[in-house]
């Protein structure tokens, strides 16, 4: 994820690999919580649309890694394997 400060002291969070996930927070801490939620929520869109979930790229300068929960990670891996077999 990438944090971008915006007017009013807020932070917008975007994800290079998952452009559908965009969120914001009043503070960095709130933006981190919102980022994890946005990323998990977007996974449902991929599942519903039967699109493979992108594998995370290496973290670049200015980015931070947001990890999915273990159960969501397992679900994503299983889902991608299932799609690859069809």
TrEMBL record:
Pfam families: HicB_lk_antitox (PF15919). Residues 6-61 form the HicB-like antitoxin of toxin-antitoxin system domain. Transmembrane segments: none annotated. InterPro entries: HicB-like, TTHA1013/TTHA0281-like. Coiled coil: none annotated. This is Type II toxin-antitoxin system HicB family antitoxin.
């Amino acid at each position: 994820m990438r944090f971008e400060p915006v007017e009013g002291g807020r932070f917008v969070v975007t994800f290079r690999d998952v452009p559908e996930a965009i969120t914001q927070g009043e503070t960095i801490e709130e933006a981190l919580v919102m980022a994890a939620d946005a990323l998990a929520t977007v996974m449902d869109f991929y599942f519903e649309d039967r699109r493979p979930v992108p594998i995370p790229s290496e973290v670049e300068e200015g980015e931070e890694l947001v990890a999915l929960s273990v159960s969501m990670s397992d679900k994503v891996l299983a889902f991608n394997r299932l799609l690859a077999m069809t």
